[in-house]
Write a structure and sequence with these properties.
With 240 residues, the chain is of the alpha/beta class. The chain is built from 9 helices and 8 strands. An 8-stranded parallel β-sheet has the order 7-6-5-4-3-2-1-8. It is globular, with a radius of gyration of 17 Å. The structure holds pyridoxal-5'-phosphate (PLP). The site of pyridoxal-5'-phosphate has 14 residues, from strand 8 and helix 9.
């Protein structure tokens, strides 16, 4: 674990440098871009090493991994967001461990989350996930529907809409990737500018991963979700 930790420390520093350089190049304050560590498929001791090295925001794709990692890291108090598809029958298991669910992509899921939070007497931060590339393998509402879904989510009790999430186009063409991220920013601006109840705080743009975080930051990302660039290659296959 000692070598895992020093490797993680080194890669964490490298990624923070990439983020800082990209922010400066885009005339933005590097402090306005948070690094979320995408922990999918990683063993708990590896995730722990990265959190100990200073990673304070974790993203989990699967509830099964969330409930494995989170209790073992509780003493370190990382903030944990769910960034993968959430099935309704996993809501109860996920809620105790997360402060935000970034992957809300249907009104039904939002209503179920709101009702569950009401029963628990708590509030929950959520983001609306849009599928800006329209690739059929990806979850998320279509970009044309994202603003109306967000406005409906923002109006629900116990949910606090904090922003928008997307997985970028799987393309080598930077123009294609960037235009998808620009689209999400436009949706965000439309919703924040709507003046509708609960929309004023929806400023976050969670977009960009190991391979394209610079492009996302250039288009306004406030959270980049990084897995392999910090953790190294994944050994187990997984669907996003
Ligand atoms: C895996 C994953 C990431 C991180 O991907 P890397 O390419 O390993 O940085 C980010 N967001 C989501 C939703 C993911 O599933």
């Amino acid at each position: 674990v000692t070598s895992t930790r020093s490797a993680a420390q080194r890669r964490l520093a490298e990624v923070r440098q990439r983020i800082a350089r990209a922010a400066v190049a885009a005339d933005r304050d590097p402090a306005d871009v948070r690094l979320l560590l995408a922990a999918k498929t990683m063993p708990t001791d590896v995730v722990r090493a990265v959190v100990e090295a200073g990673g304070d925001l974790l993203g989990e794709n699967r509830v099964a991994e969330l409930v494995e990692h989170a209790p073992a890291l509780a003493d370190l108090h990382p903030e944990i967001h769910l960034i993968g598809h959430l099935q309704s029958n996993k809501i109860a298991a996920a809620l105790p461990w997360v402060s935000c669910i970034q992957s809300v992509d249907t009104p039904t899921l939002a209503e179920r989350l709101s009702r569950r939070c009401a029963a628990l007497g708590r509030d929950l931060n959520v983001m609306v996930q849009a599928n800006v590339s329209a690739e059929p393998t990806k979850h998320g509402t279509m970009p044309d529907d994202a603003a109306s879904l967000a406005e409906a989510v923002a109006a629900l009790p116990h949910l606090r809409l904090t922003g928008f999430m997307t997985i970028g186009a799987n393309s080598r063409d930077e123009t294609v990737v960037r235009s998808g991220y620009a689209r999400l920013r436009e949706v965000r601006d439309e919703v924040v500018g709507s003046g509708l109840p609960g929309t004023a705080a929806a400023r976050e743009l969670s977009m960009g991963m190991s391979g394209d975080l610079e492009l996302a930051i250039a288009e306004g990302a406030t959270i980049v979700r990084v897995g392999t660039a910090v953790f190294g290659p994944r050994t187990r296959a997984t669907a996003p």
